[in-house]
Amino acid sequence: xxxxxxxxxxxxxxxxxxxxxxxxxLTLTAMAMTGGIVFGTLxxxxxxxxxxLLNVPAATYVNLMRSVPLVLVIFWFYFLVPWIGGWVIxxxxxxxxxxFWSSVITFTLFEAAYYAEIMRAGIQSVARGQVSxxxxxxxxxxxxxxxxxxxxxxxxxxxxxxxxxxxxxxxTSLVYAIGAYDLxxxxxxxxxxxxxxxxxxLAAAVVYFVICFSLSMLVMRLQKKIAIIR
Length: 230
Fold this sequence. Notes:
Elements: H1 8-47, H2 52-65, H3 70-88, H4 98-125, H5 128-136, H6 141-171, H7 183-193, H8 197-229
């Protein structure tokens, strides 16, 4: 299979992989992680609220997103967002969203459901006495969460949050289904250009493995440090 393989293929394919593909993947991961954590934290606080007008919609959203395959959600937003956007602004034709922004919206909203459950577990891991202390200082629910509970919850859940981000990085390869030029698409283009599809897909698997395994090792070290601090 590797007979006559020119290893210079990898070097010549770097512009396809890193200039565009890797940049797309890392940008999408960073934006979806940031938006997902912010929205997920809000959902977690809503779920823990005693008001049904807050916790019921949040629980419904989280359970719905966690019950639907991600690739299906990608297709939904890729085809529906342009129509919804056009309807909102009163345009006669769907607006042009593009694969990148459609992917950002999809992953942010989808990952928020998972980050919400992580943050909810982190919030519940903080001793109830901390909440009582915040209330004793005259802080309301949102202030207590923001100033007292969330900083401790984030520290407790940081390894899990980072692990979910690694999973997010892996899942970004699914935007391949809507033609987005991500890292996997870069490998595919390189394979077609140099007529080496098998080798380039194997190289893609190696690259994903090295990145994700390295990050997983860093998360494990961070988890041990946090355990020592506790």
